[in-house]
Design goal:
Blueprint lengths: L3 H7 L30 H9 L17 E11 L32 H9 L29 H21 L12 E5 L3 H14 L10 E3 L13 H20 L1 H14 L3 H6 L2 H10 L6 E2 L2 E2 L2 H21 L1 H25 L7 E6 L1 H10 L13 E9 L2 E11 L2 E2 L10 H4 L5 E2 H9 L13 H6 L4
Helix pairs in contact: 2-10, 4-5, 6-11, 7-10, 11-12, 11-14
Family: Belongs to the histidine acid phosphatase family.
Catalytic activity: 3-O-[beta-D-GlcA-(1->3)-beta-D-Gal-(1->3)-beta-D-Gal-(1->4)-beta-D-2-O-P-Xyl]-L-seryl-[protein] + H2O = 3-O-(beta-D-GlcA-(1->3)-beta-D-Gal-(1->3)-beta-D-Gal-(1->4)-beta-D-Xyl)-L-seryl-[protein] + phosphate
GO molecular function: phosphatase activity
């Protein structure tokens, strides 16, 4: 196999996947042991694959003993999936999307998950979710379908959160009810199935009568607040920036030309087919890149395209157009989240655990809007968590913690960057987050708009 040797060297199974780095150049979640001194496209791709290995260290649920956990809000990217595009004129990578107990990666709850899902056809979800399969089940994956790796990633996430939030902090009572969960997903089978896998790992008893997923038509989870002309203008300018960066990269163009010759299509057609998506699938599943009688797509091609992707992310942070898009794209879901937190501070016991099963294009704008510009692009099965805490010694005081893939990033956010210098508490006052979402996040856009509607409709942009 093409990549086996690489993986043996680069994924020691006991390596913790996270840790913080003091160097500002390094992004959130570098590994101090194996982080390469310069950007390494293979290392970055392995992090993106997020192949399940040993249980990872995580900082969720860490707080002084006099703090009580009040509510938890979890945003996930779906797990590992089959590509959305194929490289033209090549054979599709042969990945099996049935769930098999004796195949790696494995999770102790895998068989029980399949058994439970196969009995769940009577579950009622908001339309059109009730027409989706509850678990992947094709011998040759369909386009975009969740894989066994993707299911195991989220069973693992669920188990980890269960150990912390239920066993340790008793977030839900033993006789928990349906209204204590808030579950929402886009209308893709991979997001619904990822959400179900996480819940199956998380809940002490997975009772179908208590599981109700709402359907979210927009990948931004903007519900009734999706119309925002200025957001779309930012996106158009950001896409133009991406296009110009591609044009400047002669090595990338040469690589696309070589690959196009191998598969015998025009370069333009190959580029439009987004080969990185398919190549990442080959890479993550240790399947050889495609060959034709003209030659083989190889590791060097992959490295060039992946390196360009990393450079694009770097320039995206510098140019700030994506930040404008992110602020307006993430505001509705952040506003919904603080509303849920505020209701919890009033002692309401509904929606103590919220789960949004989403996409990279959901998490990425939220990370950017929060000011987490150094965060890595959301890997498969990435998780972003908002914890709400109450100080038992001062019950009227509530604080939040933000965690990304198990790393506490609270003091990397725009709204709480300097707070830890003034306060010994390892978290941020809830009012900081509320003020940020209601008003301060729009400062990044310039102009005079201090609310979502004005920022979305301002004319001077």
């Amino acid at each position: 196999m093409l990549l086996l040797e690489l993986k043996v060297h680069l994924i020691p199974v006991s390596t913790p996947k996270n840790g913080m780095s003091s160097k500002s150049r390094k992004r959130i979640m570098p590994d101090p042991v194996t982080e390469p001194p310069v950007t390494d496209p293979v290392y970055e791709a392995l992090l993106y694959c997020n192949i399940p290995s040993v249980a990872e260290r995580s900082m969720e649920g860490h707080a002084p003993h006099h703090f009580k956990l009040v509510s938890v809000h979890v945003f996930i990217r779906h797990g590992d999936r089959y590509p959305l595009y194929v490289i033209p004129k090549t054979k599709r990578p042969e990945i099996d999307c049935t769930l098999v107990a004796n195949r790696k990666p494995y999770h102790p709850k895998l068989e029980a998950f399949v058994s439970h899902m196969s009995k769940g056809s009577g579950a009622s979800f908001e339309s059109p979710l009730n027409s989706l399969p509850l678990y992947p089940n094709h011998p040759l994956c369909e386009m975009g379908e969740l894989t066994q790796t993707g299911v195991v990633q989220h069973l693992q996430n669920g188990q980890l959160l269960r150990d912390i939030y239920l066993k340790k902090h008793k977030l839900l009572p033993n006789d928990w009810s349906a209204d204590q969960l808030y579950l929402e997903t886009t209308g893709k089978s991979r997001t619904l199935q990822s959400g179900l896998a996480l819940l199956y790992g998380f809940l002490p008893d997975f009772d179908w009568k208590k599981i109700y997923f709402r359907h979210q038509p927009s990948a931004l989870f903007c519900s009734g607040s999706c119309y925002c002309p200025v957001r779309n203008q930012y996106l158009e300018k950001e896409q133009r920036r991406q296009y110009l960066l591609r044009l400047k990269n002669s090595q990338l163009e040469k690589t696309y030309g070589e690959m196009a010759k191998i598969v015998d299509v025009p370069t333009k057609q190959l580029r439009a087919a987004n080969p990185i998506d398919s190549m990442l699938c080959h890479f993550c599943h240790n399947v050889s890149f495609p060959c034709t009688r003209n030659g083989c797509v190889d590791m060097e091609h992959f490295k060039v395209i992946k390196t360009h992707q990393i450079e694009d992310e770097r320039e995206r942070r510098e140019k700030k157009l994506y930040l404008g898009y992110s602020v307006l794209g993430a505001h509705p879901i952040l506003n919904q989240t603080i509303g849920r937190m505020q209701r919890a501070t009033e002692g309401r016991k509904q929606e103590l655990f919220a789960l949004y099963s989403a996409h990279d294009v959901t998490l990425s704008p939220v990370l950017s809007a929060l000011g987490l510009s150094e965060a890595r692009f959301p890997r498969f099965a990435a998780r972003l968590i908002f914890e709400l805490w109450q100080d038992r010694e001062k019950p009227s005081e509530h604080s939040v913690r933000i965690l990304y893939n198990g790393v506490d990033v609270t003091f990397h956010t725009s709204f709480c960057q300097d707070h830890h210098k003034r306060s010994p508490k390892p978290m941020c006052p809830l009012e900081n987050l509320v003020r940020f979402v209601k008003r301060d996040m729009f400062v990044a856009l310039g102009g005079s708009g201090t609310n979502y509607y004005d920022a979305c409709h301002r004319e001077e942009f």
